[in-house]
Amino acid sequence: MPMPMPMPMPNAIAPHSSATRRAGLLALGLATLLPMLAGSMANMVLPALGQVFAVPFASVQWVLVAYLLGITCLTVVAGRLGDRFGRRRLLLWGMGLFALASLLCALAPTIGWLIAARALQGAGAACMLVLALAMVGQLVPPERRGWSMGLLGTLSACGTALGPSFGGLLIDGLGWQAPFLLLVPLSLLALGCARLGLPRDGSSPQKERMNLASLSLLVAALLCYGLALTLGGSLALWWGAGALLVTALFIRRERLDPSPLLPLVLLAAPRLRGGLLASALVASVMVLTLLIGPFYLRGAFGLDMATVGLMISGGPLLAALTGMPAGWLVDRLGARRVVRLGLAVMGTAALGLAGAAGQFGPLGYLLPILLLTAGYALFQTANNSAVVGEASEQTRGAVAGLLTLSRNLGQLTGVAGLGGLFAALVGDQGLNMASELVFGTQALFALSALLIALAFWLVGRSREEALAVV
Hints:
By secondary structure, this protein is mainly alpha-helical. The chain has three domains: 16-199, Growth Hormone, Chain: A, CATH 1.20.1250; 212-260; 269-470, Growth Hormone, Chain: A (Up-down Bundle). It has helices at residues 18-52, 57-85, 87-106, 111-135, 145-174, 178-197, 212-230, 233-256, 270-301, 305-333, 335-356, 363-389, 396-426, 434-469. Mean pLDDT is 78; it is low at 1-15.
């Protein structure tokens, strides 16, 4: 009786041929690129959706909010689910779900259908993003692991940078469904490469206990939070109260649970707490630029969607190019100094946008946005280095998870909260009026400057508190 072939260990490098390994790396690269592409392309679709479905801005917002909710909720547990059921298996399911959800988005007959499909797309995207990082070490030797991580980081930035330009071109030529249809064959290509090139899971995946009760409370809290930010009047107060109540229940359960979903005890460290809060504030400002940019450039200056997409791509593209120089500055000057430098640059750019909106044509918007994005690249690189670098070896993974969660919560706040404020200032009719768009843009970037100043204060205060504790 022949002996069974040994299954590769989860953390071992699979003995595949070079062609098979390249297919696996292509699958992981697409698993990193496509979720970012889906997120940034959708911003370009929003103006068209309001006209096609004849719905207010508050409903259109949920096309972005639902995607962020799906990513945020599943990001917290995707790694653990992969350990429990097999990383390759869950990644394949995530890719398949992403492809199906993208097709459902393109076929959506109503805005409700589209929002539900976007939530499914976000769930698939979370599995792809988390498990691509978890599996890349199984395909490359240790001496090339840094290169592979850098490749995935570059592809992530490229997905954000290319999304607006591709989305604008596709919408202008083929309609709002085209960006979602583009994702279907690309995700199927990723699925095929993953089946061919990724090593099979071990015969006995880890049987880690899943904290489903805490996960359910977290999902409910995030949903209530999103509804509170997008709904007006007394309903917003009720949903806000619900979010606070469910969050309190979640925190209480997490403190009593021996295997918590989130390591909330780490938040007692002042520097970590300040870095996470600053990350959330800055993320809310940056996602706002992608949200209101298409409305502002199209409504205030009458630009076609292809041109709008190319202009909005400038910021994310600059962020991708600034990442390496920002890392060099962190090594030379120290993370804390570069954090403050990045925030100072961002604050200056936000004030420039608040003062110059509508006065110098499209360039009066593009140039400050580029400056804002350069400052963001400095801040993000330095803040990530400071927050994760100061964590102990035992808590580094947990801290990285909290950092991702804070960034996702900031993006959710920017899309739902700041986007809702923009809609309230402009009004549904004002989305097509240049004067109203200019006023709303000025007000929102003035508020953004205040949020950046708050982040600057938090970073400085957390340092003083840490010194006082020492």
